[in-house]
Amino acid sequence: MTLLLRLLITGVAIWLAASWVDGIEIISPEDTTTSKLIVIAVVTVIFTIVNALVKPLVKLLSLPLVVLTLGLFLLVINALMLWLTSKITETTDYQLHVNGFWAAVWGGIIISIVNWVLGVLVPDND
């Protein structure tokens, strides 16, 4: 149940990033609400998989840069994970398109903040 809530929170965060940042858009085969929700669901699952598999390795390898920049390099890592998700989804009909590095940075910031705020409201079983 907690996984579904976390996926829902991530989906809301991606939707907010796509609606607030000019360089991020959700592209669906049809222009209906149901199609957009399917795209958000697919992108959310891919983003979660990327964050679970790739992000820890990237954080470990870039640990000296994270320490040197006092954690600000984590914003770049979040942007890279969003960009990687964009590149993976651009091979399908259900796309999250990130246009440029700064759009990815702002999208990563928005997704991190929304995940943090909504994560505080959803109790964790730890």
From TrEMBL:
The keyword Membrane applies. The keyword Transmembrane applies. The chain crosses the membrane at residues 33-54, 61-81, 101-122. It holds the Pfam family Phage_holin_4_2. It comes from the Bacteria. Keywords: Membrane, Transmembrane, Transmembrane helix. PANTHER family: SLR0284 PROTEIN (PTHR37309:SF1). This is Phage holin family protein.
